[in-house]
Amino acid sequence: MAGKLKSILLNKLAAYVLLYLITLSLPISLSGQISNYSLGKEQFLDTLSKRTFNYFWELAGKQNGQVPDRWPNETFSSIAATGFGLAAYITGVEKGYITRKQAAERIYQTLLFLQNLPKGASKSGVSGYKGFFYHFLDQKTGLRYDKVELSTIDTGLLMAGILCCLSYFDLPDDTETKIRMLATKLYEDVDWNWAMNKANTMSMGWHPESGFIGNRWKGYNEGMILYILALGSPTHPIPSESWKAWVSSYVWKKHLGQEYVNFGPLFGHQYSQIFIDFRGIQDSFMQAKGIDYFENSKRATIANRQYCIYNPGAFTGYGDKMWGLSACDGPGNQNNIDNNIRFNDYGARGCAFGYIEDDGTITPTASGGSIPFLPYDCINNLYTMYQQYGNKIFKKYGFIDAFNLSIQNKDGSTGWYDPDYLGLDQGPILLQLENYRTEIIWNILKKNKYIIAGLKKAGFKGGWLK
User: Fold this and answer.
1) Is a pLDDT exceeding 80 seen at residue 396?
2) Do 386 and 429 meet the contact criterion of CB atoms below 8 Å apart?
3) pLDDT digit string (tens) for 249-304?
4) Dist. CA 148–CA 88, nearest whole Å
5) Domains, the chain, ranges and CATH?
6) Nearest in space to 387 (alpha carbons), one of 309, 338, 316, 322
7) Helix ranges (DSSP H) in 337-448
8) Would you state the pLDDT for residue 82?
């Protein structure tokens, strides 16, 4: 057994070395876009949009507007998923799934619930502190779940959704006026500067038991939206130098033929761009590279797809229309009979220069959240998944979170299909599909004075910011 395992590890190492050597010679090439789909694909995209929207609309209604972290194995609500949900209701109005009045009432109740929750430095019995919210909240009470951290990034994603509501609901009627008041209050209450903890980059979070988390938001990842929100705050802004400190930790490398700011899991290239249209606007870093952050995410998506085509781990199913690595659930090793492969549970799967996390698990949110960057390949990928695996992976609320075709189960079956949906992974699919089709969320936040202020304070110029 030891000899066999050693041989497998050596073969895998050789595959990674070969993959790296290939990357050195690959040209930078961008995949084409598609202008027409077959009727089948259009119907599929409409169905995907409606079913994914229903995850937020049907499930959040039961819990004071709080979106469950996962379903049907519900545990707690996720404040980041609630932020995605607030933006999702706007797409529902624009798509005709619900009326503007229905959305406004749901959003008002959600924001009112968040505003009225008890807050403070206590270890329990509160939902947040200094305007930040705890990562997970009890679905019924809205109070801190277990001993989770006061999360800066998850609060940021919640606030991004709240600012969407602030800018969208602009009518003078009573409900929409209250939405604007509550949204402004919730955003202005966040003490972003406190979370810097006297440093030039922001802490990832805080525990009442032990204080600030040592890890900070640096190195390119999903934290970009966090800094823009914090820079644009009218009440507790962080210094403009913070953006320079954030950018100084970027890793610009060539990976699988693409030169870009590297980050392995695709969610890091997607979350900020769900809310902000980075096409044509540049900070000093991207201006020096001759691209923008949208192009950067496009290159990362191409590299992710290319990695799965090469498939150095020799996993089942990978190909040009079956790919996508990002943070997601995984099968774990509980039911696996082949102990030579380590299958993980939830984890940040992905690929980049110096970063490979891959156990054969594909997640639809990887390509779904990248649709605007690489529409032809991402849509074909999702459509192929739907065609080949049907209701094994495409069910009541759209795509399940993840699947793995390589696992050999103890009962003799092959493949693992996640029993759950994850709110944090449903959001990018719905919102990025609609950004691609109508640019709805992008256009809303182009009108938001706080987002504009944050971008300008970070040094962004050009494009729609003119």
Assistant:
1) yes
2) no
3) 999 999 999 999 999 999 999 999 999 999 999 999 999 999 999 999 999 999 99
4) 26
5) 32-465 (1.50.10.140)
6) 322
7) 364-368, 375-389, 423-438, 440-445
8) 98
